[in-house]
User: Fold this.
Amino acid sequence: MIGAGKKRKPLRSVWFLVGVLLVVFLVFLWGRSGTPPPEKFEFGKVTLPGFLQSLETKQRSPVQLFFPGKNLTLVPENREIYDTTEKVDCLRQIVLLLLSGPRSSDLLPVLPSGYDLRELYLRKGIAYVDLEVKATGRGGADCLEEYLGIKAITESLKKNFPEVEKVEILLNGREARTLLGHIALQ
Amino acid sequence: MYRQRKELLWLLMILLGAALLFCGAASGRAEVTIVLDAGHGGEDRGITGTDGTTEKDVDLDLALRVQRLIDEKLGYRTVLTREKDERITLDDRAANANNNKGSLMVSLHLGGSLDPDLQGYGIYYFRSDGDDHVPEEKGELLLWRRQQAPYVEESSRLAEVLHQAFQNAYPSRRDLGVHALPLYLARSVQMPAVFIESAVLTNKDEEAYLKSETNRQKVAETIFEGLRRYLQTAAGADEEVKQ
Assistant:
């Protein structure tokens, strides 16, 4: 009897495995046949032109952005953003414009290339600017330019929206010690 | 016989006293510890020049050169926060400097700019961007991020002396000045601390300048000269801060 039991076991296991595979296959087919889920709005993957295109019918308002100047101070540049019902969308536009760089050739970019806006939240007067680092190596900014870059983001947000009392910069969704290795973010 | 022994005993005591005094003076000299922090390291290359020079390599080379000059000419104890090409976190660097009871810290970096024409040297020290609490009582417990608060004034003086040394050594190079910034590493160290950016690596001419060993030695000698001048006048003030 014991010997016969031993012979049956592999057969049972095979049937069990076939059953599991069948269920997995059916679930897969069911998933494919259903309507595809709506495309998730992932801000970090939206480019500035794409985002602005979605707002094109709106009215525009002037804003003053700050960029580091070649004399290593912050210099204002007048730009426009689309009016939106959500304040946070205005703040997102400002950060996207900052990351896309200044119009004037006398001004410097806020950050080296390789940084994108992942998301921006506004909670109790604090604007959380969540940046995504795409580049593996660091760019060419030193202590002072790193500081001016951070200041440019915070001052541009605070200057245009007084309800922003404080700006916290996150990296890839987390609190970070520094942006480029020198200046304390907290 | 007894009198002779007594005289011998006195002689021995005098010799012992003299030896202790000598050791005290010698150890007073050795109490000065200079922490040299070579920026970046390992996968963190820092700034990369257009010709491929990496900041981490130049920073380490300069730190080793300054260390050699201090060893040879001053004999003070030096501590390097990194001695090879490895990544060390900013908190570990600060902890190393504090655990070694550094008298001062010099962090060696190079400038980098999004403006390829920018060149020059700059000196930086810590200034908080809002949290400016300075302890009124000595021995008051301070948060990790506020450790630099009692030393800000002295750091500013160290920065000025080093700046003067650079101005003297490089009268024709662009002077990017002395700036107070919320530097992450400096805020956690319990000693006067400065960052030196001796040249801008993203500028082609300055990258070429740094490729020469002779020029790097001149930069190291300039930093050494600034430290020597600062230490000549700071011994008393530094002790006051330490107490």
In short: Chain A touches chain B through 24 residues (CB under 8 Å). Helices of chain A lie at 2-33, 48-53, 87-100, 143-160.
